[in-house]
Fold this protein.
Amino acid sequence: MNVQEKQAYDALGAVVDPELDEPITDLGFVRSVTVTDSAVEVHLRLPTAFCAPNFAYLMAADAKDVLTALDWTHLVTVQLDDHHDSELINRGLAADAGYRGTFKHEAEQDLDELRLTFQRKAHTAAMERCLTYLLRERRDAPLASVTLADLPDDQHTDALRRRRATIGLPTTPDALVLVDHTGTPYAEAAVPLALRRARSTRISIEGNAHFCRGLLRTRYPDEETA
Amino acid sequence: MYSKDGENYYIVDAHVALWDARPENQRNIHGKQFIDCFYDYHRNLSPEQEVWSYDDYLYQGGERLLRDLFELGYVDHAVFQPAYLGEFYGNGFGQTEEASKLAAEHPGKLTYNHNFDPRNGEAGLDQLRADAERFGLKGVKLYTAEWHGESRGWRLDDPWSYRYLELCRELGITNIHVHKGPTIRPLDRDAFDVADIDHVATDFTDLNFVVEHVGLPRLEDFCWIATQEPNVHGGLAVAMPFIHTRPRYFAQIIGELLYWIGEDRIQFSSDYALWTPKWLVESFVDFQIPADLTEYAPLTTAQKKKILGLNAAKMYDLDVPAELRLPDADETATGPRGADDLVDA
């Protein structure tokens, strides 16, 4: 990988699988990065041919956006390989047709709400992770009134702050941790159910991420990621 | 029947298929992609000694199915849940003639469920009437991501779907198995979303809705809906084999299900021929929630018996020997059950 290819690859680290809440570079979805002069060509791959086409499109379109934003790229080609909608999505990407232009009658408005749904889930999971760690340390932790300042200074708290910022929640030290996606806290009596529900979200996302990594390895056993 | 340590387990494999994915039945590249996806699931989640060759995986036939389920697999009764996939396979994926004939030959061992597609309109309603009579249907398997001409998905709360569910009610087809897939119209929304099940479960309280693979990859949405709807059940297709590759995750799935929907609404299946029941039954009977996952109570033998067969047997009115039956748990009909202690169950 030359310097520009490395730059392109690093830029792709900002593209997140919305369902799994992890960068596509960490997930091994970037199959190859090739730069010739100022033209960059990236191939993406997914764990199955039947991964949801709306998420596949989102990741491929986001990849094209971050590469186009680099100041030295002139021609950006992003290709999704081996997917049931590869042809449709690749054609749409090449023509910069956008989501509706790509999927035509199957698209109604846009994918903003879909993206938001999963940004909220990512926040919920990050919140549960922090609070459950806290509970394991302090069984009597008053969950309804725990603030960001009460959390340890570690990567889980950092992750929670980032997820909060993404969906527009405050990240100041006095901000309450256990809140819904609008920032509304829970009454004492509603705390156990809220945390249990958040836990099922965290387990679901973690489980899916692990399964997807495993399937990717099974599908491409002999092929390293970019 | 499976017996171990003096306990007898009546086994119902609530989701099996007799499929034909051989190249001569594939209509296009998607037929190959679909079975390849299944084969990757199989290879990824099976113990090494249980992995089949690709050729074996394409087609099994009735004799092998009978052997894998009933001779080797401890299964007392199995339910066919066929996916049509007519856009991918010339004669469909699930083999209607072969499977229904097998079920007719072995009525004590096999139940044949069929499928419908609300996009077939009036003609499909007539077909459902005919199918109900021909197969004596108690249940149907619905795949909401089925492709159909220009459409690549439908929702259970579409108006035409309501017509079909009303007909199910009229014909005594009470067990609606739902399988969520990746495509649905419009693509704006999450295709795996289970909210449509919430609507129909509320409007058809006399029908059972069994959500296959317990809503995965949306376990959390499934649990939240199912806890509020007493007629929503969880099928363990695809979730079961995690018992081998990811026992801790499997424990969390089971722990969550027991908390949100309780022990009477969870059904075992191997999802044959994705996997085979023998190793799954053996593993599940031996399985226990890891001690450090203190938020979940240990799994009891009675719970295992219910999940492995008694729950599905009750839904399908199967003739379970009296000494193997168990009473329902004394639990709330809706809402989470169990301890609200967040670190210790």
